[in-house]
Amino acid sequence: MPSTISRYQGWIEHEIRKQKYGSDPASLYEPIRYLMGLGGKRLRPMLTLLSYGLFQKDVKRIVKYATAVEAFHNFTLMHDDIMDNAPLRRGKPTVHEKWNVSTAILSGDVMLVKVYDMLLSIETDKLKRVFRAFNKCASEVCEGQQWDMEFESVKTVTEGQYINMIKLKTAVLLGFSLELGAILAGASEKDCKALREFGTNIGIGFQLKDDLLDAYGDPKKFGKQIGGDIISNKKTFLLIKAIEKARGKARQELLQWLSTKKFRKQEKVTAVTGLYDSMGIPALTEKKVDHYFDKGFRQLHLLSCSPEGVANIKSFTEALIVRQS
After folding, report:
1. pLDDT-derived band of residue 243, with 50, 70 and 90 as boundaries?
2. Of 31, 239, 277, 304, which is most buried with the most CB atoms under 10 A?
């Protein structure tokens, strides 16, 4: 399995370097090459290749289409960074910081157009199905981002609303990545659906785990400031459940931290995680994470392909879960 993953990673990186996107004006296309060259886990194209490999052996044939998914993911990051006013992406200046906001908007727009261009050479009998699935996914990602922004200004968000938001914003693209590989391989509708549901549930689990690590992770492993969500009062699963469960003095203290404008960052993080601990929020979050991972893995039992292929995709996902911990 490791050799397969390494080989696929090599193919993906080679294809990303090979893609030209465009040349003139350079200021429009250089930001795309810059962002795509910043690296990342390349999780989505990897899932597309692994999914295709469940049913067909000529995996290298679809690398271009797998990297189209990565290009779409990076397009969403380019625009998300503008909306979040984020200064850094993978430790480097974001496109709107390195160039400007107008350039980042236009580069993102043309990047999305190029994604469609990359998918156009798919066989005619599969093209409409791919575009229909992709368009549904792309619309849902935008819906999720809009919900995320709206949640910043509303007083309360329910657990159901939050799960739906992260499903749309993050998880459905993992589901589409797997569905794309299955469609290109000529898999049955049943298998395509099972893989899409697998990816979507795993994606929800990953985001919930990310919420937990933001409050409790190792800064060296996590790669960003611990407690950032707490500092900004972001309505994560942890905060939503804490507000639900808090009573008496704990509730009063939590609401006070949420309303205080001036504070020492570390003091707030320590106080709020202490409240989370007293209410059992970390264990509750872990339980919800496991629920979605288990729900996703159950979909793999529905697949009509070789047990070896299923074992490969399961072990790859399990390794990601362990690395994220």
Report:
1. very high
2. 31
How do the domains of the chain map onto residue ranges?
A: 1-121, 170-325
Query: Are the C-beta atoms of 300 and 198 separated by less than 8 Å?
Result: yes
Mean pLDDT of the chain: 94
Q: How far apart are CA 93 and CA 38, in angstroms?
A: 10
Does the CA dihedral 133-71-164-295 come out positive or negative? positive
Which residues is 88 bridged to in the sheet?
Answer: 93
Give the mean model confidence (pLDDT) for residues 99-119: 97
Write down the pLDDT at residue 309.
83
pTM of the entire structure?
A: 0.94
Q: How far lies 91's CA from each of 45, 86, 88, 103, in Å? A: 22, 11, 6, 20
Helices 63-84, 101-119: axis angle to 10 degrees equals: 160
Question: Rounded distance, CA 247 to CA 227, Å?
Answer: 23
3-state secondary structure of 22: coil
Q: Which amino acid belongs to residue 270?
A: T
At the topology level, CATH places domain 1-121 in: Farnesyl Diphosphate Synthase (1.10.600)
Mean pLDDT along residues 73-95: 92
In the chain, DSSP assigns E strands to 88-89, 92-93
Q: What CATH number does the domain located at 170-325 have?
A: 1.10.600.10
Output the pLDDT for position 149. 95
